[in-house]
UniProtKB/TrEMBL annotation:
It comes from Vogesella margarita. HAMAP family: Glu_tRNA_reductase. This is Glutamyl-tRNA reductase. Homodimer. Residues 168-301 form the Quinate/shikimate 5-dehydrogenase/glutamyl-tRNA reductase domain. Residues 316-411 form the Tetrapyrrole biosynthesis glutamyl-tRNA reductase dimerisation domain. NADP(+) binds at G185, A186, G187, E188, M189, I190. GO terms for molecular function: glutamyl-tRNA reductase activity. Pathway: Porphyrin-containing compound metabolism; protoporphyrin-IX biosynthesis; 5-aminolevulinate from L-glutamyl-tRNA(Glu): step 1/2.
Length: 417
């Protein structure tokens, strides 16, 4: 059984490819069950965010698991292979440690990804696809992330995607305080972004969500109001800023809807930030005059601010991670020895039981206990010494020399030359 990880992220694939391989949260349990049921993997965890889709699995058929990922999304392996990375056990651990520590994020040192990985692990656990191998990997991952956060300043002065959205807005409009802002969705990302915009005291905050109750609950935190997604066409023209992040598999806002909104606004500009993967806003919307449309990839330059100042901390984090990777690979090696240890103990137990049964029979026949004990001890000694003695008495050359050295080490022997 091999531990492997493969996937794609904002370093290896454009948004147009990432959105085709994304897993909406509600589909993850079924996808995990399907993967394991297909026998392409025995254990599996899927991490799917706006910047990455990664599959961690314990499998004897890495190629089969890779093919499953492409087939699940209706793609051929040839279509996605140029964007994918595949990592063996040690590199998979290193990658997981770096991702959880915020070293592989668009925003260096950001903390949201750690929560997303924890959510992915909980989902796999509930789906019954988190076995002992992946559980060991992710428990180590969480411990490493904690060490990096507590022992380095890798997250210091980090400019989040949420803050970057506000900065972009302020490059287009003079003051957020004069703007009406619409948030589409009511998940964690929208809550983070809304917090940053609310700090600028916009003229109006509205949350549009599929379920009105959830939207109202989020809007209440910022003194705003809520509408349903069905009401968007009638309300879109009221807003200067639109930020969207939902789990929809199809665009929520199309070019036609925005064209009508611009006309109703008499061509006053709209700033639109689409943080969803797959995208919530049709790409063609960006072609319209008076519309400033940005995606998660477009704000990469802004979140680089402060990155140089954190580079030293990142180097310190990499040192911690390298050490922890060594610990993890040592754990894997010990884990691989467990079946052999179990078989060795089973064989010793069989030898003990056979010798004991023979001794009990001798006692039942009236043989003096002293003699029975003598025979028992000799029999056990002969049985236990037979394999190493046979190994020492056979073979030649380098292999025999290695066996001699190994047996001497195992038994802590230092024979005179």
């Amino acid at each position: 059984m091999h531990l492997v990880a493969f996937g794609l992220n904002h370093h290896t694939a454009p948004l147009a490819i990432r959105e085709r391989l994304a897993f909406p949260a509600e589909t993850l349990p079924g996808a995990l069950a399907q993967l394991v049921d297909s026998q392409a993997a025995r254990e599996a965890t899927i991490v799917s965010t706006c910047n990455r889709t990664e599959l961690y699995c314990a499998t004897q058929q890495p190629d089969a698991a890779l093919a499953w990922l492409a087939n699940y999304h209706g793609l051929s392996l040839d279509e996605v292979r140029p964007y994918l990375y595949q990592l063996d056990a040690a590199e998979a651990a290193r990658h997981a440690f770096r991702v959880a520590s915020g070293l592989d994020s668009m925003v260096l040192g950001e903390t949201q990804i750690l929560g997303q990985i924890k959510d992915a692990v909980r989902t796999a656990e509930r789906a019954g696809t988190l076995g002992s191998l992946l559980n060991g990997l992710f428990q180590k991952t969480f411990a490493v992330a904690k060490d990096v956060r507590s022992q380095t300043a890798v997250g210091a002065s980090s400019v989040s995607m949420a803050a970057a959205g506000v900065r972009l807005t302020e490059q287009i409009f003079a003051s957020v305080g004069e703007l009406k802002v619409l948030f589409i969705g009511a998940g964690e990302m929208i809550e983070l972004v809304a917090t940053h915009y609310a700090a600028r005291n916009p003229a109006c905050i509205t949350v549009a969500n599929r379920t009105l109750e959830r939207g109202q609950a989020l809007a209440a935190q910022f003194g705003g109001n809520a509408i349903t997604l069905a009401e968007l066409p009638d309300h879109l023209h009221h807003y200067d800023v639109v930020v969207s992040s939902t789990a929809s598999q199809l665009p929520i806002i199309g070019k036609g809807m925005v064209e009508r909104a611009i006309k109703a606004r008499r061509h006053r500009p709209i700033f639109m930030l689409d943080l969803a993967v797959p995208r919530d806003i049709e790409a063609e919307v960006g072609e319209l005059s008076d519309v400033y449309l940005y995606t998660v990839d477009d704000i990469a330059g802004i979140v680089e601010v402060g990155q140089q100042a954190r580079s030293q901390a990142a180097e310190e984090a990499e040192t911690i991670i390298a050490h922890r990777v060594g610990e993890f690979t040592d754990w894997l090696k010990r884990r691989e020895s467990v079946p052999l240890i179990r078989a060795l103990r089973d064989e010793a137990e069989r030898t003990r039981r056979n010798a004991l049964e023979a001794a009990m029979k001798q006692l039942a026949r009236g043989t003096p206990p002293e003699k029975v004990l003598e025979v028992l001890s000799v029999q056990l000694t002969n049985k236990l010494m037979h394999p190493p003695t046979q190994a020492l008495s056979s073979g030649s050359g380098a292999a025999h020399d290695a066996q001699v050295a190994l047996i001497a080490s195992l038994y802590r022997l230092h024979p005179e030359s």
